[in-house]
Amino acid sequence: MIRVTVDAVIIGAGPNGLVAATALARAGWSVEVLERRDVAGGAIGSVRTPKGYVHDWGSAFYGVLHTSPVLRELGLDRRVPWAHTSSPVGATYRPGEPGVVMRRTATETAQELGEDAAAWLDTVAWWERLGVPLFAAMMGPIGAPLPLAKVLARATPRELVATARTLLEPVEDWTRQRYRTEAARMLFAANATHADIGVDVAGSTPAAMLLAMAAQQHGMPVPVGGADVLAQAMVEAAEEAGVVVRTGVDVTEVVVRGNRAVGVRTADGGGVGARRAVVADVAPTILARDLVGEQHLPGPWLGQLRRHRYTSGYFRLDLDLDKPAPWTDERLRDAMVVHVTGDLDELALSQAQVRRNRLPDQPQLILGQQDRADPTRVPAGAASLWVECHCPADPPVTDWTERFADLITERLEAHAPGLTASIVERTVTSPNDLQRLDPNLVGGDVGGGSATVDQMVVFRPVAGWSSYALPVAGLYMCGAASHPGGGVHGLCGRNAAKTVLRTSRFRRAT
Ligand SMILES: Cc1cc2nc3c(=O)[nH]c(=O)nc-3n(C[C@H](O)[C@H](O)[C@H](O)COP(=O)(O)OP(=O)(O)OC[C@H]3O[C@@H](n4cnc5c(N)ncnc54)[C@H](O)[C@@H]3O)c2cc1C
Questions:
Q1: Where do the domains of the chain lie, and which CATH numbers do they carry?
Q2: Which residues' Cβ are closer than 6 Å to ligand 1?
Q3: Residues in a beta bridge with 110
Q4: CA–centroid distance, residue 298 to ligand 1 (Å)
């Protein structure tokens, strides 16, 4: 039974849903957000253990958010107490040998990089002059001429062609020709492991560039207290704008009448009517199959949607320690994110195994040491490691999760001898566990679908339908599966809200 009718119903209180809701409410719309979990925030959440450790079960680091206009628009810069370490990112690639760290300023990082100092400063200078407006243009609404004009105004035609090549070049080649030392190469290239793009694959340079340069420019901030402090701040911004956020409400159907979305039904037998828009922060495959129903969607659109590929999952470990990790390279003790990768060859081989649905022999590890900046997250004197790596959701082996967790722990022990002895508790989260926590994380895919070049920009998530509107009037997508993709930046939601408002101008509310 329809309980209430509002201008817009948002399905899902992930960061993109909350950002879209806030934008619509600020435009004067009445907006309800319906979230199936008991807590809002999507894949931004924290669990507090009985022993006093805080585990961010999903996202953990918010460098990319700090490149996004959403940070200030929602007041997240002032609502959230952000914490930093002196080193946003580090990498260790050979057991027993020194690794490398980035520092808070480019000049300090250059000092760490010896003979690659000048090349690092060149990269940063390029980022500040051309990279920042270029990425802003690439991640904003598609077809918006103004941001693109800003990029064109700053560069010569030859520079633009060279930049286009950089955007397509595999990051292993880009770093090999740009940096002489393995340290600089790994400091930069290991950032590509956050996406699913192999370092030997076209399009991996922009993936690494965004993360590396965001970290150099903004650090790798974490919220004091846990990631859920950020989620609460997003809810606060939405509610301040007048949005009603309801948790524990599972949307089971988008109601379509005469090819128009007019509301939603919920698992408790209720529903909410939508005068102007239903905006779904929901994986598009689930939206089409389970919520809208394929009978309401045109065959060619469904055909293109079937080409949308999800990618490998994330495997997560939380290691509660009785003291900080004993890294061989002591500089890593203060790095917020540590990449444990091996060299470029090992990295490429491992990524290829995952793409072929195999468990990697040498998992590519992304580690977080949030408590180094925020000691409130652990008992006094203790520490924790937030660990993630790509792996298939369903590799062709049985009972693999604990053995894979052992392999990861052994790999860490090689870079931090003595670590295993200081583990108080180990919590394993498999890719399928992630999907159980949030159905948008299909097979543990944290980015709403592969970020390879054939799935980005105008191809995302359905070729030719990258404007957030679906082929049902009044129905829109705003989640990470839409342009510009995964990560906590809120831009999918922000861009989607712009489309919703623009489209609604052509149709009077009834
Ligand atoms: C383990 C992990 C680590 C990550 N690390 C980082 C990181 O460090 N930094 C970073 O920037 N990004 C990171 N990410 C990625 C980032 O969290 C996601 O890309 C981002 O959360 C996507 O936001 P979203 O709003 O599109 O969707 P989600 O965050 O997935 O939120 C969608 C919401 O919709 C709800 N929902 C779905 N279906 C329904 C329904 N039918 N009815 C009601 N509610 C529904 C879900 O319960 C969920 O709350 C990570 C993700 C994971 C899982």
A1: 2-43+227-309+439-505 (3.50.50.60), 65-225+313-391+394-429 (no CATH)
A2: 11-17, 34-37, 42-44, 58-61, 64, 250-251, 281-282, 314, 316, 388, 434, 438-441, 446-447, 479-480, 486-488, 492
A3: none
A4: 28
